[in-house]
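Structure in, sequence out. Go:
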């Protein structure tokens, strides 16, 4: 099983466990240490305090001081599973580990899992105003 399949299955299992019916979402990240962390978005009363589905898994990687190499966000709507490209905020969170972090991009059950680097997703990112040595120091 390759990394994409491993992350898809981990996110799918978390999704089934946390949201057995109806809509829901789960994310999984793979790290340089070989760990897989999963997360869901917390339920909140005030929508201004919402967090992305990937946030918990990203924080786990920080907690264990291991770099994220791959990220995948999976949602279920009307029974169909879809991979979502990380939003701009999550792309910024993933950029902590460099421009070559691989993020799964939007697809559906019939398409293979496709990853793109943050470099590909953000060709005109604001950080290019700085050298890599300055930015990632």
């Amino acid at each position: 099983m390759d990394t994409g399949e491993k992350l898809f299955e981990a996110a799918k299992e978390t999704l089934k466990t946390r949201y057995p019916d109806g809509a829901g979402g789960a994310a999984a990240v793979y790290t340089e240490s070989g760990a897989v962390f999963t997360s869901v978005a917390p339920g909140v009363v005030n929508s201004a305090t919402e967090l992305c589905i990937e946030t918990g898994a990203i924080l786990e990687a920080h907690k264990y001081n291991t770099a994220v190499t791959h990220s995948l966000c999976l949602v279920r709507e009307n029974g169909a599973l879809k991979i979502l490209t990380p939003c701009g905020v999550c792309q910024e969170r993933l950029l902590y580990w460099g421009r070559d972090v691989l993020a799964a991009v939007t697809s559906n059950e019939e398409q293979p899992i496709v990853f793109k680097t943050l470099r590909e997703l953000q060709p005109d990112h604001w950080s290019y105003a700085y050298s890599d040595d300055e930015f990632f120091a």
